[in-house]
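To: structure subgroup
Subject: Chain for Friday's discussion

All,

I'm putting the inputs and outputs inline so they're searchable in the archive.
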Amino acid sequence: MYDIVIIGGGPAGLTSAIYARRANKSVIVLEKETFGGQITHSPKVENIAGFNSLSGNEFAEKLVDQVLFQGAEVDSCEVEKIIDNGEYKTVITDGGEYTAKAVIIATGAKHRMLGVKGEENFVGNGISFCAVCDGAFYSEKTVGVIGGGNSALQEALMLSDICKKVIIVQNLDFLTGEKKLIEQVNEKDNIQVILSSVVESFIGQDELKGIVIKNASNQTSEVYFDGLFIAIGLIPQNENFADLIDLDGRGYADSGENCLTKTKGVFVAGDCRKKDIRQVATAVSDGAIASVKACDYVDSLKK
């Protein structure tokens, strides 16, 4: 039996493992895809404290190396469910099961994709999901933003202060964001809004050059740019744990800054949690908090 099983190998989960090992707890991190999480899609990262510039993969490798150096275990598998047995939990995976005194859920949130053929090939090669992370790389260049909600409009406004031109493409015939954001977008001379249009295909071979869009009249046209930001929402990965944690209307773990849940011994951390800001820095913070709380819980079982 482990002291703590951590579900999710992104910055939140890996940070949790580091803190748990520093507290001399036995711990294993379970990850179904890529250790490092969404950050591995970023070719260059410049907003992580302590590093002038490095790739997302490099940052992920450093995190994993540190986790292993501290003595934590890692395993590649998909968690199917958690069974609450009171003072211990059973974590069922597609390859077996683990028991632990505490579980930290750090499954993150996936960026919603367009579902257009070839999309995955351009992630990190022209497609980005974060203006805060990658906007500076397109200084004085032209970029596209897909989406019309608050996230897309906020991304577009931020990019408009950096880029020469921003082109918003929205599938509806109106923007769905807050009125104030729409007004700010309309006031920007370097933001163009294209409504009632969907992405049909991508233009480019190894690197994205533009998109083919189709409007409500089924007419197609080409839009060229230097980079594309997709902002059509996030999908939290919490559905397998809904019986143990409260979820909000969008599927995020409804937990406060203390990372506690309604189930004793189950904690949440990172982008899977309801929060205003989702960045590496906030994920790392959550990971530390959840781990300290989990360690305190494990220690309480000995009393």
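Points worth raising on Friday:
The longest strand covers residues 96-105.
The two ends are 18 Å apart (CA to CA).

D.
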